[in-house]
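INPUT
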Amino acid sequence: MNKNEIRYFPLGGAGEIGRNMHVFSLEDRYLIVDCGVQFPDNSMLGVDYIIPDMQILQGKEDKIVGVVITHGHEDHIGGLSYLFDIVENVPIYATPLTAGLIEVKLMRAGKLSKTKINVIAAGDVLELGPFQIETFHMTHSIPDCIGLAISTPHGYIVMSGDYKLDPTPIDNWPSDYSKLAQLGEKGVLALFSDSTNAERPGMTPSERDIDEAFEEVFAKTTGRIIISSFASLISRLQQVATIAIKNERKICIVGTSMVDNVALAKKLGYLDMPESEIVSLEEALKLPDHKVLILCTGSQGEPTSILGRLSTGKYYAFSINPGDTVLLSSSPIPGNEEQISNVINRLYRMGANVIYNSVLSIHVSGHACQEEMKMLVNFLKPKYIIPTHGELRHLHQHARLMKQMGYDDEHVLVIENGQSLIIADGKVLLGDKVPATMVLVDGTNVGDMDMDIMYQRERLSENGVVVVSLVFDKKHHGLIQEPVIVHYGLMAGKEIPEVEGELSRQVIEYCAKKNNMESNNIQKNIEQLVRKFFYNATRRSPWVIVNPLYV
Amino acid sequence: MNKNEIRYFPLGGAGEIGRNMHVFSLEDRYLIVDCGVQFPDNSMLGVDYIIPDMQILQGKEDKIVGVVITHGHEDHIGGLSYLFDIVENVPIYATPLTAGLIEVKLMRAGKLSKTKINVIAAGDVLELGPFQIETFHMTHSIPDCIGLAISTPHGYIVMSGDYKLDPTPIDNWPSDYSKLAQLGEKGVLALFSDSTNAERPGMTPSERDIDEAFEEVFAKTTGRIIISSFASLISRLQQVATIAIKNERKICIVGTSMVDNVALAKKLGYLDMPESEIVSLEEALKLPDHKVLILCTGSQGEPTSILGRLSTGKYYAFSINPGDTVLLSSSPIPGNEEQISNVINRLYRMGANVIYNSVLSIHVSGHACQEEMKMLVNFLKPKYIIPTHGELRHLHQHARLMKQMGYDDEHVLVIENGQSLIIADGKVLLGDKVPATMVLVDGTNVGDMDMDIMYQRERLSENGVVVVSLVFDKKHHGLIQEPVIVHYGLMAGKEIPEVEGELSRQVIEYCAKKNNMESNNIQKNIEQLVRKFFYNATRRSPWVIVNPLYV
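OUTPUT
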């Protein structure tokens, strides 16, 4: 093994659901970049989120030199509290806003004492064990993002982080083009680059581009304005607040995560929103309608969010009235399309004027589109490109774009999570595979979910459950009493007593046959009988539980 | 009541999920236009489809003059077999391809004898009881579509049907502009107009526009080409077949619905695909890769479709090989985004080159966009507009567009299903509400699904189910044996025996207290104990079933 050999391990569950954690090793020391969660798709019933499979780190806590976080979104920081269940005393390095968000998260999870959060600034150079890491500012949909450049004797390993090349960001702090150009001059061996929008042509519009649409809405609206967005989209909150103040509307912030994020961003100087312009919900509800802007969460249609509850009339504090204008300043995260659509439909039904991205441009993506991806490659001139972030389809599409730029299969590596890379002697080659299964989290318990449990939930969800309890006489083998049949999620209607009666008769009849009673498979056989019965009666296949008790 | 008063009843379940059936009444006679199904969203666990609430037709079979079908898509014909459970001997009127598709459908459901299918041609005038109906050709994504114009003394009631204004349709049969202009000249009282794409600006591209992209793929590809699309998208099948023949590839059609539709469309002259160019799958697999085009279903990622099974390696007849090029010539129906994305990711993983609409224009919508909607209004100059088809958000957006054209609230009526209209004296006014609940179909039994059952399935799907069986002594009230605990979809892992043991101990302890045993609520109390236990142990809330048996 080459002394300078760096290994790279992409982690985060199955390849199609995103890469939330990166591990580099050099001289038996480990560097972690980001540690996020992924949200489950609709088929993962009851799963709260998916965390990266961290087993390759087990027992290595003395060898981990640190965790560098590129920005404060959940899919980059949400896994930290689980990381500290496995390793302790590993320091974190993050820019101020990112550090603030991590602190809140770890405090809530009771894990703050297990690490030290080091606040860094974009441009800092970190010396972590054998790793020398240069940081540089990148624009995205949350302030204070960084990209990383890890030095190697054969050129830099650059991680773009999540980025867009926004020429007019709300905080007036564009990406560090001069650093990108310098890195390109010095030589980049490998670029790990954001692929999220690889299917979208052109350039992502600037955050500033949507000001006009907001101005238009504020100018035309005489009723209340309610805007929902991502709580972490600090720049959007700034934009909206600025326009509200200009239009003499007071700002009311509703929802814990939004209130917390606003407080943190104000404290750290990322948000300019004078206290005099902010009112409580109580005050807001007393103001004339044309004097109010309400900011809330729920732009993904989450049923428990403020907007979700407003749309079903279940928010205790106030209701949507005809004349209200509701803006969803966001775009659907894949899988949320339906629930967002339902929220929009319900708000319309309540008489609101609903404005969302497909009718007016009030949201832009935070990720680079195709032309920006190419431009980043023009800046950095990397020898190797490893598409990163996004589903497998986005990684492949990113690779297609790079091939248009003259890269060949050997120099664009589409890898799935768990497929390690060996970076040595100026080359990047495929290494071994390491475990990268999906670790599903439901409730507090980690790791006690598996695909069997998912399958059982799916089956239960499709046709419900039937429980048949039977009490047998231990000695004489006979049924002592009639079967007790209960079912849930299976069927409604007045035919139920008849159906249950018939099933009961069939079970009794079956049990009455002496040779059946002595069968070892009585439980299985009756389960099969019940399954068959319901399939014939209803063409449904409920989950069947038969409980034989012997007394 | 005015003798000439026409009433209109929009049917199809809750307003946000589409309008699949229209009923008009005049002089106590009823005319039905279309009778389709809607597909459930992801939250409707285990539901196969949703049919319109037809109870207003119950007992009226002698008064129904006929069902006129505008085109052969499932959301316009899929409810017919349920209609004939309620009313018999009601004739159907449809153009040849539509009639053919209906015949197959009713034959399979064993309902063909309950109606008479009358084949009509676009341009025909139907006299059905008091209704005089003029039909006219419209372009859409299936051949042989018609719009309808019902005469009234105060102008026509026009139904656009699903349409786009395609200037170069594959069958070279554009919409009947001259008829539309004539209707506009004579006077249109009310237009019921397709709203599906009301959020999309511009014009929908022509079906012909995607030829170029297909030509490009065929020219560049040396491996097998596998194209999946909607089985009903006859024009797409024609396009692809024409290009395949030109490129000397034999055509292989896989999947029952596609095979059936091709046979029907060929027989009726809607598809020009010489027998000599078609091969069986067996033959196709023996041909060199560059000589093969396989057409199959599954463009919505349905797990049981051919493409769905190919993507999981579960199709018995053949497998995806590296070098295969797979085209998904379709766009996601809302709610299917995730499962389509999963299919694309899996095909990539198998080494296929995957091409879909976001990377190359190989699909266009069959519905009119904003400029076409406006153009239709320019032709027809209706006094009233009733946005139809699409979710509530699309109806409202359609109304917004019409307001840009000078219509006011009184003349653009956004109504939900069940909200009837009164069309009399040259006016359209809101009438009574009639029942329009969602009728959910799961398996064969109709009507025995309700929202409670949906709720139970949702609960079961989130955290699984726990069944605790208890056998008590009838006389002495004591537990005779240890509780039997089974659970599914709740948890996996090695802590299970420990967790179960602890629960068992707590139940025994509870039952041991004499006053507990005599409580009437013993079942409820133990259920609560079990729920609390699992919440504390795992933060999960399974569905709990406690079965006390007394012997």
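end of record. Chain A has 16 helices and 26 strands.
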